Here is the input.
Amino acid sequence: MPMSPRLLRPRQAGGFGPRSIGSLEGWWDASDSSTITLVSSVVSQWNDKSGNNRNFTQSTGANRPSVLTAQRNGLNVLNFGGSSVTMNQSWTRQLSGGNTWIMVFSYQGPLFEGAERPLLRMDANANAIQKGASNAASTSRRNKIGSFVTNTAATNFFADQLSDVTTDWQVVSSVAGTALGHYKNGATETETAFSGTLPSTASTTLRVAEASLAFTQLHVAEILIYSKALSVAERQSVERWLGSKWGITVA
Here is the structure.
């Protein structure tokens, strides 16, 4: 009899895990039911496993995501599909000295002409760091992710035009330090500069999905944020750990 995927999932204890690398600022894991608070079968709170208590919440019942049981590799994920479905939190530390954002998700459309749909966003007058999708003609219907580079002017915001908009599950990483690095399933993506604005204060809002924009299907499995630019070896260790856990092929 084959072993259950739950018994095969990577564990922190006795081996590698997100806490094996320092500067872990936030960790949200949809497969860990102990971090999920349900009210009337939808998610009112998604707790942070980093130890920093950065818990996502949603007070409006109609805007709460749902749990999809055993959706990916035998593990639960959260579905942010539906009108104005989002979760957010107050973020009181500005990530200005280098950072790494890693997200495991499946974006299944629909694609919106000429508009971005942020998947993971930090707000303060404008986007601080964004992972989104766009199908404007100029981007050839490609996904988009972006992040700021340390030690550059506040108007220098960089994005990747990812090479496809498949509905496959993806491990997407954005590393911002003295240089940028953007990766999809371990493969490097090329940056394209565009205008943006850094948060003006240390206090802002971090959200999953854009509150005013509806996704048909946005499945989110795991999110990690580090307050440093991970080294190549560190990034690859995290990406491969996530790939093994969620059944995603990572280079």
User: Anything to note?
Assistant: The helical segments are 5-8, 232-246. Residues 22-29+88-212+222-246 form a domain with the Jelly Rolls fold (CATH 2.60.120.200). The radius of gyration is 17 Å.
